[in-house]
Request: fold
Amino acid sequence: MIKDAITLFEDYLAACVEMGASDLHLSAHCPATFRVNGELVSEGGEDGEGISGKEMDTTVLQADQTKEIIQTITSDKQ
Reply:
């Protein structure tokens, strides 16, 4: 099942909290990357297991999904 952009973003934010990540890096056509203890760690590993030890959805955001997230989290004034 392909998740919508906002659901993926919410999952990424939840993963940030769980891992104690200070930053979330999103770029179209790339896996999510988290900054944990100063180190950049990409979502998912060679074994398909997520960073937190749980299986994560390793869906790569498409350009339109990235745009949707940005438009959702920013106001008209930004």
